[in-house]
UniProtKB/TrEMBL annotation:
GO terms for biological process: formaldehyde catabolic process. Keywords: Hydrolase, Serine esterase. One of its GO terms (molecular function) is S-formylglutathione hydrolase activity. Gene3D superfamilies: alpha/beta hydrolase. InterPro entries: AB_hydrolase_fold (IPR029058), Esterase-like (IPR000801), S-formylglutathione_hydrol (IPR014186). The active site is at residues 146, 222, 255. This is S-formylglutathione hydrolase. The lineage of its organism: Bacteria, Pseudomonadati, Pseudomonadota, Alphaproteobacteria, Hyphomicrobiales. It catalyses: S-formylglutathione + H2O = formate + glutathione + H(+). GO terms for cellular component: cytosol. It comes from Lutibaculum baratangense AMV1.
Amino acid sequence: METISINTSHGGIQGVYRHDSAECRCPMTFAVFTPPQAADGPCPVLYYLSGLTCTHQNVMDKGEYRRAAAEHGVLIVCPDTSPRGNGIANDEAYDMGQGAGFYLDATADPWAKHFRMYSYVTRELPQLIEPNFFADMTRQSIFGHSMGGHGALTIALKNPDTYRSVSAFAPIVNPISVPWGQKAFPAYLGEDRALWRQHDAAALIEDGHRVEEILVDQGDKDQFLTEQLQPEALEAACTNAGIDLTLNMRPGYDHSYFFISTFMEDHIAWHAQRLKA
Ligand SMILES: N[C@@H](CCC(=O)N[C@@H](CS)C(=O)NCC(=O)O)C(=O)O
């Protein structure tokens, strides 16, 4: 693991690191904020998964998570959204290929060789965090934005014993029913719709996967709300399954980091409460 940059912030350390990923078969960059409490012992870990077009850097620059992370003593880990590089499959569109990994393991060519973000986030990255940071791996939670909200929800639903809590900003909750997923899933996963359902939060819940509770914040002026996000699909699935969903509709907010940063501290406090329980 190589250190790209280190900056002291809010009494902790904002670092950017790179390593050769065995899953993605390329160098992967990620950001970690280590809070000041790490000096006294291992801290719980909160993964933030970003949305389409993002790297580790968008949330680091615009997400405003450090003050709350330092207050609550939570380590924040921000991976990239896909493998990247010249020899790696890509697409000119912003919602396919590099920057659009959808947190799944692709099974169809040309994506299958490198696009393994599910295994990267759930297995390889934690194995790298554990020995290199002051992390208490018995206390992990996950959240994310848009495509990263989809990643957080699906990963938590599939691994309820690994993540203590899950939340999302403006998540894609039912990708198999909206254009983003209907474009990406056949490309990455082929025509096997049973496989698509394993990467769809609403479908996973319908198929019996469970978490105790979910926190979602959603702007009502989000430009993707009606076509791509449709939080009512998650609401219906949670109601039927008895999952305690808090869906906060936020008047006036759009899809951007102006929205995310406004509610970032609420989400970190919510996770911190559950990580310390
Ligand atoms: N570039 C896309 C929008 C993609 C987009 O909004 N991406 C969100 C995540 S889904 C994001 O966080 N973008 C990066 C940023 O705002 O810094 C478009 O032209 O419609």
